[in-house]
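Propose amino acids for all 175 sites.
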């Protein structure tokens, strides 16, 4: 891909909740097709069905390991498609800097020091709990099932998108 930004014509998200709602809205604004896979096990077929297109798959890296080998083999045959694996959508929000909280930065640098595996089945659940707790009673209040519209406001949306490297979502020439 070099130094050029990826300009997807379609995005497939593993998520079917807030993460999908976020990407669906961003894509709708910019003429990009967006679809939820409804889980990691459906991504392979959906990506196969879009062979020849410039597809970006966004999936939770925290839970994607079991799918990695066959997806990477498929991506080798579909050089215009790419995959981005943040820990979770909640991790993207935490990483965006929208929450000005030094402890969050420390947690993001070394999550293994903070995640209690007896309490949290996955890092995704940990980051969801952290984001939900740290945004409760604020304008950024977060729930996994329904995206707070504030995350689609220009400043908040751009902060979240800035975490995703080398992807151009807006159909503008000079981004």
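Proposal:
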């Amino acid at each position: 891909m070099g130094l050029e930004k990826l300009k997807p014509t379609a995005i497939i998200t593993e998520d079917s909740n807030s993460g999908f709602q976020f990407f669906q809205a961003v894509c709708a604004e910019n003429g990009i097709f967006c679809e939820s896979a409804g889980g990691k096990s459906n991504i392979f077929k959906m990506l196969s069905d879009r062979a020849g297109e410039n597809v970006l798959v966004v999936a939770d890296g925290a839970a994607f390991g079991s799918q990695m080998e066959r997806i990477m083999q498929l991506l080798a045959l579909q050089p215009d498609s790419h995959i981005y694996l943040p820990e979770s959508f909640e991790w993207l929000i935490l990483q965006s800097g929208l929450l000005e909280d030094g402890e969050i930065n420390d947690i993001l640098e070394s999550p293994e020091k903070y995640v209690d595996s007896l309490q949290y089945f996955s890092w995704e659940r940990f980051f969801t709990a952290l984001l939900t707790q740290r945004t409760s009673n604020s304008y950024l209040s977060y729930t996994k099932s329904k995206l707070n519209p504030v995350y689609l406001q220009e400043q908040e949306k751009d902060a979240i998108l800035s975490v995703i490297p080398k992807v151009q979502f807006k159909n503008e020439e000079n981004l």
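The longest strand covers residues 10-13. DSSP finds seven helices and four strands in the chain.
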